[in-house]
Amino acid sequence: MRILLIAYEFPPSPSPQSLRWTYLVRELDRLGHEVHVLTADLGGETPGLPALPDSVHVHRTFPGLLRGALAFHRDYRQRHPRRPRAAPAAAASAEAAHPAGAAASPGNAPVALRPPRNWKQRVSETVQAIAGQLRFPDIRGEWRGHGLRRLRVLMDRVRPDVVISSHEPATTLELGLAMRGRGVPWVADLGDPVLAPYTPRRWRARSWRLERAVFRHAAHVIVTNVRALEQMRERHGGDTPMSVLTQGFDLAPPAHAPPTGVFDSARLELLYTGSLYAFRRIDALLAALRADPRIRLSIAAVTVPEPILAAARAAPDQLRLLGFLPHRQALALQREADVLVNIANDDGAQIPGKFYEYLGAGRPVLHLAHETDLVAARIVALHRGWVCGNDEVAIADQLLHLLAAKQGGRLDAGLTLDTLQVREHSWQQLALGLKEVLAGVAGGVGPQSPDRASG
């Protein structure tokens, strides 16, 4: 099967959607399919991402004026790196990364690609946000024209059996819709809805029209969980076949590296890897850390809000900001932490992709949620960790219980932490489900097909 994927978010982007399709493309290639990827040229490289086979055809295009300038700057910086800091500064940095009590291992300690936040990131975010006021759905929309021109060429040159749009951004859906007269079946990997609670007011009407057009013209729609499928069915009816294809984890992670020395065996070490948003709140957990000084939380994130920076400055022994780590380093830390923290989104139709990554780490998960959701039910059913209300008192009680359990050598007692029971959420298994969907679409399976659940 010849597959053409439209994906703005693709390496070197380290976003969850980029990781999703990097792994799925790799597995589709291993299954013998010819895969072409149309993406934006975002410049540079991001270390630690999964390697793609040379047989995958990646077609990079100009992303637009602003993102193009940023890509040029990134390429330049990678070709002309700044000189290392002076020795005293380097020593201070190492001390900050490994405060007293942590068995630092200089050769293996994780090195952040970017600090949690600095003035350059603030300036870049501000400029992109202002420019994004004029572009739908955000600044990534400036790729639309450039991507569309290359897509038309690829449709004639590649002659794909099926085209897939990887959302977000919504630009990829617009490009897919533009090809609907070509006679090639189109699959929309929707991820989050186009019209979501966080959609800016100025784009809500356009987002609704686009989402409705997707369900009118797509041969198949993929979402990441059952609740999202139900939500889309309520909005758009049952004419378009749909599948659930969750986020996942790699059954064959990189070879085990020596211990990083980041965590202290005398502490209860919590780890959170992922983004933080207004609809994914960590405030109660930060407050609950005060329950015992032996409890420590490490956060690996691209950027963090200012209140978290302030909290880290106020309690550096209990809250560490690791910055944005390469994907492989984040995976290694997940396998070493005592407890992996997952925080529910306000919208139950959205499940943080990191939860599925956590399933592959073999460590217990502490899920914080105001009400029972799909993740909570899954954790309980799998005996994979603990579910706790996202409020300070409940979290503090849970953390003290876990601290006592660790001190008694009972932290993992009663839990099942192997990957065998969660194999259905591996990228390898998910790719088999995706292959079946694509084969059905390319073979002309009609809209009467029942909804499917893969993983």
Question: What overall geometry do the principal axes of the alpha carbons give?
Answer: globular
CATH class of the largest domain: Alpha Beta
Reading side by side through the largest sheet, how are the strands ordered? 3-2-1-4-5-6-7-14
Task: List the domain count as a whole number.
Answer: 2
Q: Helix share of residues?
A: 25-40%
Describe the structure concisely for a colleague:
Residues 116-251 form the Glycosyltransferase subfamily 4-like N-terminal domain. With 455 residues, this protein is α/β, with parallel strands linked by helices.
What would you note in describing this structure?
- The protein has 455 residues and is of the alpha/beta class.
- It has 2 domains: 2-69 and 124-248 and 426-454, Rossmann fold (3-Layer(aba) Sandwich), CATH 3.40.50; 253-423, 3-Layer(aba) Sandwich (Rossmann fold).
- 38% of the residues lie in helices and 15% in strands.
- The chain is built from 15 helices and 14 strands.
- An 8-stranded parallel sheet has the order 3-2-1-4-5-6-7-14, sandwiched between helices. It has a 6-stranded parallel sheet with strand order 10-9-8-11-12-13.
- Helix 1 (16-30) packs across helix 15 (427-442) and helix 5 (144-158) crosses helix 6.
- The model is unreliable at 86-107 and 446-450 (pLDDT under 50).
